[in-house]
Amino acid sequence: DRLDNSLLVIFGGTGDLARRKLYPALFNLFVDGFLPPALGVIAVGRRGFTRDSFRQEILLPSLETFSRRAASMDAYFEPFATRLHYFRTDIYDPEGYTRLEQFLVELEEAGGSRGNRIFYLAVAPEHFGPVIRSLKETGLVPARGWQRVVIEKPFGHDLPSATELNRQLREAFSEEEIYRIDHYLGKEMIQNIMVIRFANTFFEPVWNNKYIDHVQITSAETVGVENRGGYYDRAGALRDMVQNHLLQLVTLVAMEPPASLATEAIRDEKVKVLRSLKPLDAAAVSKNAIRGQYGAGEIDGQMVPPYRQEKEVAPDSTTETFVALKLFIDNFRWAGVPFYLRTGKRLPLKVTEIILQFKSLPDILYFKEYGELRPNLLVIRVQPLEGVYVQLNAKRPGNNNYIVPIRLDFCQNCEVGVNSPEAYERLLYDVMRGDPTLFTRWDEVEAAWKFVDPISAAWAAQGQPQFPNYAAGQWGPPAAQRLLICDARRWWEEN
Ligand code: BG6
């Protein structure tokens, strides 16, 4: 892969995603010397900014607030800002695309972007299809050089809508040109999973159902739905987090070693995991798929309102803001090993981590008289702490035989000076150099919906859930705890 020059057109150029993630990521890449020298960025928006007012009102505050390189603003803001252009149009105005084409051609003639074009769809999902169609109809694609399209989640609402969206995309772009974002794949520790697994003799031999008792994956947030009630109330936690981020984590934990590190070799192994997921029928959904919705409660010492009173949320909404799932991967490596997943809004902590609990040794020695023997755990901390640790049992120092759990702990971002790049930096960089490894291929999206759709359908058939069923600030409804307690297990919470 090469870092070619190109023009990067951002639809939704004044929106939340662009301001919070894309401009800060581009700026950080710029400061660190990772942007191609002639990259031009075109922010497309409906509002009437001039290049200068866009700079002052959108770009500057975005970088000041969200960039981890904000301290470098004095030196780098000016040269960075000259790369950015603002282009005003309504994305439903065909004439706007014709003008945009002229504008891109002018920039291409003036600069060194060689006719390469990246289109980034940072707009609401209902606009994806129409924008793609207009790009094609008004001749913005095919580009004179190479072309790529970056598409944000959600990729559809279920399998039929995802299939339709994919069909529309494929009319203008080939599969290799489509970069489907799952920003979890850009996170440092998630990229680290394969390294930990396949570069350490310690782990690979025991990474299977002979030694692993179960896997827990938690992605918890303290925030509510913020300003996204309109979207979220139609999606819910299952579609918003499980279909994409959590199942992607499952694939990375469970996949077989790929034949090489080539993009398609890795994706081939990931999709096999998704295809091996044991489907949940209605009976299994009742037992193993727990949903919850938060009521009022306390987060960080502050009372917060119930989900049903959030902006743009129906007052009698039955949308889930919490999901806990027990799933199985029906293949030789994992048969019989439960994977417990949970995610939710308004939980006690912001934390994402993956825990592998190993099977316990036979309980026949004298240890238990000297303290509780804890299972061995391998914990991969994704955020906010980044690192990995192993929990072992060891003797407490002194003239006794007490056994205590100890940790071999590597904390990547505890060290002063470690400031990991953000997910979007890595992902944008990979789009520019044409490496789609950290993006989801269509068959992965498809297999994930095939697993998730029956759960939504079973929930819909169950009728009205008793919501709210957990107070903000709790770890979801009691049923989420019971899911593990019934299996004589527990969530490892207080890590
Ligand atoms: C997004 C979801 O994909 O991920 C949001 O749509 C969620 O609802 C977010 O808040 C969580 O991302 P992160 O990086 O903060 O774990």
From TrEMBL:
This protein's GO CC annotations: cytosol
Major enzyme class: oxidoreductase
Binding site for substrate: 183, 187, 221, 240, 345, 350
Domain Glucose-6-phosphate dehydrogenase C-terminal: 194-492
EC number(s) given by UniProt: 1.1.1.49
Amino-acid positions noted as binding NADP(+) in the UniProt annotation, renumbered to this chain: 12-19, 46, 90-91, 153
Signal peptide residues on this chain, from the entry's feature table: none
Zinc-finger in keyword set: no
Cytoplasm keyword on record: no
Glucose-6-phosphate dehydrogenase NAD-binding domain sequence ranges: 9-192
Cross-referenced InterPro entries: G6P_DH, G6P_DH_AS, G6P_DH_C, G6P_DH_NAD-bd, NAD(P)-bd_dom_sf
Key words of the record: Carbohydrate metabolism, Glucose metabolism, NADP, Oxidoreductase
Pathway: Carbohydrate degradation; pentose phosphate pathway; D-ribulose 5-phosphate from D-glucose 6-phosphate (oxidative stage): step 1/3
PROSITE patterns, sorted: G6P_DEHYDROGENASE (PS00069)
Record-stated family: Belongs to the glucose-6-phosphate dehydrogenase family.
Function: Catalyzes the oxidation of glucose 6-phosphate to 6-phosphogluconolactone.
NCBIfam families documented for this protein: zwf
Entries under HAMAP family matching the protein: G6PD (MF_00966)
PANTHER family registered for this protein in UniProt: GLUCOSE-6-PHOSPHATE 1-DEHYDROGENASE, GLUCOSE-6-PHOSPHATE 1-DEHYDROGENASE G6PD
Protein name stated in the entry: Glucose-6-phosphate 1-dehydrogenase
Species: Neomoorella thermoacetica (Clostridium thermoaceticum)
